[in-house]
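Extended Data, panel c. Modelled sequence:
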Amino acid sequence: MATVTIDGTELFYERRGAGEPLLLIQGLGGHSLHWGDRFLDALEESFEVVVYDHRGAGRSAALGGELTIAGLADDAAALLDALEVGSAHVAGISMGGMVAQELALTHPERVRTLTLGCTFPGGPEATMTDMAVVGALAEAVLSGDPERAVRAGYDVMLAPEYAADPDNYARYSRVAAQYPAPVGLLMAQLQAVVGHDASERLAQIGVPTLVVHGTADRLMSPVNGKLLARLIPGARLELLEGAGHMFFWEQPERSAQLVREHALRQ
């Protein structure tokens, strides 16, 4: 198992494929396995893909202290340093998309191209998650029933048509059951998300940017994708019709194609 020590904690990482480096940044409660093999397999044909687990998540060391989006962006930059990668294409989803925004703003020399999926900029124009959805997820997580928590997350993060297939749930639940996020980590990550507001700084992003959002995303309204594309100069918006929050899980080949074409056309 490959790890690096960053700011006093061990972060798990994995490198796969060959080509220009592509750093993938996961979302709240997620770890590197949540990308799914179909998405990663499609990307590693064109890139050296770097995936990792945030501090406290997955196979990284347990969390000690608070989290901020800026701190997580510093972790990403430090990981690139440790792997001797001067700059990389960067793709982040959900909370990872917020980290990717901050990385592009505070470490612009490290980012070749930027892909932001199912995320938001913060600020007064952003649309927060429906509190009924938040409440249902919180109740399931706090129930102490792991199966209930996995099922609740699945039903919210995947589009209804995809979620209705039992085979899709079986595949998702096998991944979700590995390295479940502790409640303390989820609370710390949620606090970091609530504190994220890059809206007034996004005009400073100078790298080619692609924004991807599923039109059936219940966790993060696609209105936020449209807002990001408006606030970042020259950004291109791609809406995936009928896809949920985990669009890269539902449409892995199409999602990988979008990342690949955006990065390599530059």
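The domain at 3-128+181-264 is CATH 3.40.50.1820 (Rossmann fold). This feature is highlighted in the accompanying rendering.
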